[in-house]
Amino acid sequence: MKMGVGVKRRTLWAGFAAVLVPLVVLLALQYRWLVKLDRSSKIVHKATLSGFLDSVSKEVEFTYKEKGERLLNLPASVFTYDRLQKAAHHFKKKRGEGAGVEGARRLFVVSFVNGHKGKPLFFEPTCSSLEARDWSPEDQAVWVATAPWRTLAQKRGIVERVRLTSEERDPSYRMLLYPVTDDASHVVGVAGMILDDEHFQQYILPKAIKSALSSSFEGYSQYEPMVSISDGLGKTVYLTGKKTFKDYTWVRENEAEKALSFVFTDWTIGITSRHATLAQVARRNFLINLGLSAALATALLGGLVLSLRTASREMKLSEMKNDFVSNVSHELRTPLASIRVFGELLRLGRVDNSDKVREYGDYIETESRRLTQLINNILDFASIESGRKTYRFERCDVRDVVCETLRTFEVRMRQNGFNIVITGAETPLPPARIDAGAIAQSLSNLLDNAVKYSGDKKEVTVGLRRERDFIVISIKDQGIGIPRDEQDKIFDRFHRVGTGLVHDVKGSGLGLSIVRHIVEAHQGRVTVESRPGEGSTFSIWLPIEQPVLQPIQKPAAEPQPGDGLPATGAPRERPSEA
Fold first, then answer.
1. Cα→Cα distances 432→250, 396, 406, 425, 438, Å
2. Which of 67, 355, 369, 411 has a 20 to 30 A CA-CA distance from 336?
3. Is the separation of the CB atoms in 538 and 446 below 8 Å?
4. Contact 377/510 with Cβ under 8 angstroms?
5. Is the separation of the CB atoms in 434 and 392 below 8 Å?
């Protein structure tokens, strides 16, 4: 039987491991996948930010290149000595066509043809002509910006590819320059525009940022981007959502930054989140997914542990029931064998002495009582488990119940050589409301245990006393005792102490469980005091019946004249006869 239980336990643990190991592997793989997803999300977010910054920069570059090439692409014939004023008509025409002149603070041309000497001529919209300025700041800035082209023209250098360039050596006068060449690829002049910083801040930047936001952050509902622009001095000149352009105070660190690539190259564009950064959003999603996985794993592990615990308890209960059947079989076999032997001796007439007949009859009666007690325990346990156990409480003298129970145990005690010492039986005790049969059964179970576990010291002390509002019945033996860690478990059903001589004694494992149920049904309690090798003392505490206080009745008042009765000495009327 023990080997079968061991095999079942190993099978149970093997099944638990078969479920647990794949679960742990699955969780490890899921965690690894989440880590990779978190890392990939960060890379994707970083690429998204970089793509946004590139998109803004390219949008600005495209806008200015388109404006510059459409407005500054003049024919080489304009830069001759007598046709230079035609450039003014060209600028006027482009302005009328809406070619982006509003983005330019000034338009100018510089001719390197003989007679002009490379002096800048500025377009005046009011008179639609080109005018020279005598070394104004703008004139000086343009002279410096076009100096490389002037030198190239003087050297008759060849320009293989003509393209629009920007000049930002002086941040106060940012320019776009377009060199014009003749058929021999020699530079004959430069057309240019001085950029309008305010127009760039108010129109071109917001348009580029809005376009880039709509294309870069579609589907990122958790991310609220905050875009800032800082000028060459580090001052914040633009913030997303602001309608004016001032020196904003912006202290939050950007997630990504990049300088503009074509014009305003000393300006830096930065982006971060208004609430949570993309890295924080990705981290939060990672933690949420990890938490959900951990919660699911905890629930599954909890279910597995509960299943294992339930199965283990069921196996333990099954083992206890098997022990119970084995022990009960042994308990039944012993008294039945005694009854059978003594009955056969009497039936065969081998006993002719009346004292022997009486002795054998006492043995038979004692063993039958023992058998009856065991069967009653089993039946009572079944009633208790099903909730059908009932008790009949009556006002009784506890001493009488104890003495009657001891008389039924007298023969068995004498047969086993036990000596019973009774203390407190002479002291009168108050009555209690009890079920006499149930209390007698509890005492019988405790006495039976005292006989089984007394060992070589065959003395049992039964005590009766009053403790405040309780009557205490104590049964003390001089036996092997009970370990402290087992004392709270011995009242559980089927429980048997698993160490030493206590476990070697056969028993059903129901006696103390029934004792506790009976005593608690009487609103009492059962306690145990024991030390290994020094014996055990079991005590039943039964509440004393409390007297019912009767209300004090007042004496009836003497009848007074006028109360409907005749006065003292007055003749009473006799009832009339019909």
1. 88, 6, 19, 16, 14
2. 355
3. yes
4. yes
5. no
Residue pair 261/61 in contact by the 8 Å Cβ criterion: yes
Question: In terms of residues, how long is the chain?
Answer: 578
Residue numbers in the chain where pLDDT is lower than 50: 1-3, 243-245, 247-248, 250, 500-503, 559, 561-578
Dihedral sign computed on CA atoms, order 65, 71, 73, 79: negative
CB distance 111 to 118 below 8 Å = yes
Q: What is the rounded distance in angstroms from the CA atom of residue 190 to the CA atom of residue 76? A: 10
Cβ atoms 134, 104 nearer than 8 A: no
Amino acid residing at 362: D
Please tell me the pTM assigned to this model.
Answer: 0.48
Q: Map tokens 């009955």 to a residue.
A: 343
Dihedral in degrees, nearest 10, Cα atoms 329, 333, 335, 340: 150
C-alpha to C-alpha distances, 487 to 316, 381, 529, nearest whole angstrom: 19, 21, 8
Q: How many helices (H) and strands (E) does the chain have?
A: 12, 17
Query: pLDDT tens digit string along 262-312?
Result: 999 999 998 887 766 656 666 777 778 778 877 877 887 777 777 777 777
Residue 203 DSSP class: I
CA dist 376 to 332, 373, 393, 538, Å?
12, 5, 19, 21
Dihedral sign from CA coordinates of 326, 329, 335, 340: negative
Cα(268)–Cα(261) distance, rounded to whole angstroms? 10
Percentage of the chain beyond pLDDT 90 is 13
Query: Whose CA is closest to 449, among 402, 375, 397, 514?
Result: 514
Close Cβ partners of 357 (under 8 Å, ≥ 6 residues apart):
346, 351
Closest of 295, 280, 160 to residue 223, by C-alpha: 280
Which pLDDT belongs to residue 100?
53
**Buried b / exposed e along 22-54 (16+ C-beta atoms within 10 A):** eeeeebeebeeebeeebeebeeebeebbeebbe
